[in-house]
């Protein structure tokens, strides 16, 4: 299966489980991979024949900037729901990075995979 991807989409948001984290905005970085048939899009050579990754990015940024969740897991599930419902994505992998959130670790976060991979 072919896929479209977005790497390290940076968004400032309120996220975290501690009191101090409810007072600030922190940067998260988001990787997306979405199942999409490249041959169909190429044959038409039109963005309407596939998933518009720029439209996806705009929508994800809008959602994440406005969210106020505690866990990176909650953010990932919210994005998955948007990709499924609004963009018709059948298979996806979503990674939320929260770089620098844990002292001594370069990066922490969550990766979820949802949907069925088409052949
Ligand atoms: N499984 C998770 N564990 C933790 C999360 C999280 O979102 N999911 N978050 C935190 C804190 O907010 C941390 O990122 C800030 O230092 C800790 N554990």
Low-confidence stretches: none
Q: How many domains is the backbone divided into? A: 1
CATH class: Alpha Beta
Task: Write down the Rg.
Answer: 15 Å
Number of helices: 3
Helical percentage: 25-40%
The count of β-strands is 4
Determine the structural class based on helices, strands and strand pairing: alpha+beta
- Beta-strand share of residues: 25-35%
InterPro entries: Dihydroneopterin_aldolase, FolB_dom, GTP-CH-I_C/QueF
Enzyme class: lyase
Catalytic activity: 7,8-dihydroneopterin = 6-hydroxymethyl-7,8-dihydropterin + glycolaldehyde; 7,8-dihydroneopterin = 7,8-dihydromonapterin
Family: Belongs to the DHNA family.
Describe this structure in words.
GO terms for molecular function: dihydroneopterin aldolase activity; isomerase activity. It is an enzyme of class 4 (lyase). InterPro entries: Dihydroneopterin_aldolase, FolB_dom, GTP-CH-I_C/QueF. It is a single chain. With 119 residues, the protein is α+β, with helices and mostly antiparallel strands. It has one domain: GTP cyclohydrolase I, C-terminal domain/NADPH-dependent 7-cyano-7-deazaguanine reductase, N-terminal domain (GTP Cyclohydrolase I, domain 2). The protein has helices at residues 38-44, 53-66, 72-87; strands at residues 3-13, 26-35, 91-97, 109-115. A four-stranded antiparallel beta sheet has the order 1-2-3-4, covered by helices on one side. It is elongated, with a radius of gyration of 15 Å. The model has no long low-confidence stretch (mean pLDDT 97). The site of the ligand Nc1nc2c(c(=O)[nH]1)N=C([C@H](O)[C@@H](O)CO)CN2 has 10 residues, from α3.
């Amino acid at each position: 299966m072919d896929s479209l991807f977005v790497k390290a989409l940076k968004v400032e948001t309120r996220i975290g489980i501690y009191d101090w984290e409810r007072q600030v905005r922190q940067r998260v970085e988001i990787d997306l991979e979405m199942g999409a048939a490249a041959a169909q899009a190429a044959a038409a050579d039109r963005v309407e024949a596939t998933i518009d990754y720029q439209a996806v990015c705009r929508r994800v940024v809008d959602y994440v900037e406005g969210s106020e969740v505690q866990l990176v897991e909650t953010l990932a599930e919210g994005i998955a729901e948007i990709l499924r419902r609004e963009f018709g994505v059948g298979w996806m992998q979503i990674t939320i990075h929260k770089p620098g959130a844990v002292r001594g670790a370069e990066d922490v976060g969550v990766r979820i995979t949802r949907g069925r991979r088409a052949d």
